[in-house]
Amino acid sequence: QKKHTCPYCSAEFTTYHNLKSHLLTHNQDKPYVCISCQARFRRLHELKRHTKLHAQER
């Protein structure tokens, strides 16, 4: 099976999709912003999980 290797830390993945997701951990960009508290996230699912915390506060 092909290995997809991270050029930054040599982590290996069986799919390109998983490598692509992993590469975000090395990127400093955080394009997803919480409208309630302005916290920033690298991944949309992280923002969605965080947003649920604000919903529980109500």
TrEMBL record:
Location of the protein in the cell: Nucleus
Keywords for the protein's UniProt record, in alphabetical order: Metal-binding, Nucleus, Repeat, Zinc, Zinc-finger
UniProt source species: Viridothelium virens (Speckled blister lichen)
MF terms (GO), sorted A to Z: DNA-binding transcription factor activity, RNA polymerase II-specific; RNA polymerase II cis-regulatory region sequence-specific DNA binding; zinc ion binding
The protein's name in its UniProt record: C2H2-type domain-containing protein
Domain of life: Eukaryota
GO CC list: nucleus
Primary localization class, coarse: nucleus
Domain C2H2-type: 4-31, 32-58
PANTHER family: PROTEIN ESCARGOT, ZINC FINGER PROTEIN
Pfam families linked to this entry: zf-C2H2_4
